[in-house]
Amino acid sequence: MLKQLKLKKEIELKKREREAILAKEKELETREADLEKSLEEAENQSDLDLVNEAANELEKEKQDNKESKSKIEKEIEDLEKELKDTEDKAEDVKTKDEEEKEEEKRDNKEFERGTENMRKGSKYVNKLTREQRKEYVKRENVKKFLDNVRIAVKQRSITGLEMTIPEEMMELITDNIGNYSVFYNLVNLRPTGGKARANIIAEAVEAVWTEQKGMINEISESLSQVEVDGYKVAGYVGVDNYVEEDSDVDLSVLIEDLLSESIAIAIDKAVPYGKGKDSHMPTGYVTALNADDTLKVSNIKTLSQANTKLENIIAEFKNIERGVSNRGKITVVMNEKTWLGTILPKTLATNSAGAYVSASQGVFPATGYDVEFCNQIPENEIHAGDFTKYLLAERKGKKFSTSAEAEFVKDITLFKATARYDGIPSRKGAFVVIGINGTTPQVEATFAPDTANAEPEEEEGGEG
């Protein structure tokens, strides 16, 4: 700032000098005109000699003034350029403290925006640029966590190490789960605190009209309350023992992506097929339909090969119960093989050029319902429904630890991240499951066994 003021003052003084030079220039022009007049009036040689002497002196003064003018204009030009460069630099360059504060604000806003968008069920994924991630891994708690991962890899144990995943990294992992999981983005995701069971209002109920001064009606009996627990799911990551040579940036990306994908697979299987509290996992919507004597008939259907037509599939969508407000949108979920092998071919036509075109445009034909592909849905099955009527409770806090299996994998250390979820359909009838091409819909799935907590089998007695 001081330098800018100094340059501005120098420019001001130089311009005053230039004004004096310009005034001198006009004075010399006036004298030159007077000499021209005196030359015309000269009557003898003596008069000519006087005019010639004055003309020579004038030419010298004009030359000196011209050089002074050029010099002062060059000085002004240089000073103005230096001032502009100084102002541009002051505009672009900020102090280190200011940059760090603004960077932290930007990072916090991105984390908050990514989390908020995920909670709304969007497919936004909070991806950091390379430069942003470099700053992110410098944060004290993130740096300490990554250092502890390296130590754990080296000693094949987490004894004495703090392995709680930092809040910033948890947010990125959570966002990434939505990138890898289909259902995470579709269901009614409700973050919950603590570890105890909790009652959550799953659906709104109709308000009651009444007289202006009338008593307020009790509607608590009609509230749709759902009790949720916090069942643990563990995602596994194999970390190469040469990870010590990796940068913090590469290590953080590896951990976030692999853990996110591992947990996402478990969620995508549990939302449709989860076995419920007796198996310490969410209750899937297919499980709930199959357990209801009425819904297992009306909402789980099989269409023969001959009856696998678009109009028959669409007709089954009428059994989807959308609730009082009817506001949740219907989404169709299937294996991509089902789409490519059966649904898409039924929409193909040829245009005037003889090329194939599809009438589906990426949505389910004739309905406009969004279509999502999920590998956990078997081939020749179509699941449709208002997935906001499935409540997925997500507990805060994810943990990171070494796995007992680490001893058996050469040059690889297994880590696991544990998260807590519970889920249940708040409206069981909001879903339909349709088997096509004569396929009977699958009503249960095989989950990875919980061998660590399995009860030991009793040995058979008897003497040999």
What would you note in describing this structure?
The protein is α+β, with helices and mostly antiparallel strands and 464 residues long. Among the domains are: 48 residues; 192 residues, no CATH class. 43% of the residues lie in helices and 17% in strands. The strands form four sheets. Strands 1, 4, 11, 12 and 13 form a five-stranded mixed beta sheet that branches. Strands 5-14-10-6-9 form a five-stranded mixed beta sheet. Strands 2-3 form a two-stranded antiparallel sheet. A hairpin with a 5-residue loop joins strand 7 and strand 8. The longest helix is centred in the first third of the chain and has 48 residues. It is elongated. About 5% of the residues have low confidence.
Write the layout of secondary structure elements.
Blueprint: H1 2-41, H2 45-92, H3 96-119, H4 130-136, H5 140-155, H6 167-180, E1 188-192, E2 198-203, E3 224-228, E4 231-240, H7 248-273, H8 285-291, H9 295-298, E5 300-302, H10 310-316, E6 331-334, H11 336-343, E7 348-350, E8 356-358, E9 370-373, E10 381-385, E11 390-395, E12 399-402, E13 412-425, E14 431-435
Parallel strand pairs: 1-11, 5-14, 6-9
Antiparallel strand pairs: 2-3, 4-13, 6-10, 7-8, 10-14, 11-13, 12-13
Offer a quick outline of the entry.
43% of the residues lie in helices and 17% in strands. By secondary structure, it is an alpha+beta fold.
